[in-house]
Amino acid sequence: xxxxxxxxxxxxxxxxxxxxxxxxxxxxxxxxxxxxxxxxxxxxxxxxxxxxxxxxxxxxxxxxxxxxxxxxxxxxxxxxxxxxxxxxxxxx
Length: 92
Hints:
Elements: H1 3-12, H2 14-20, E1 29-35, E2 43-49, H3 67-80, E3 83-89
């Protein structure tokens, strides 16, 4: 992994690492949504808990990476995740 990518990932994990300094915090769950919003239409929500030492090259905002790269990273996340879930939500 290139030095610049390692630096970028370390910056991404900076807040997470601060939280892990608290001995009572064992897991951090990252969540995100995609869709038109809960008032305008369907939304897909994802949540994942990764190991503290997780370091997957290329992780970034999904809009900033190609579909092929997204699929590769998705497989790595699923393989490495402690726990994950995806839910399709539709407004009433």
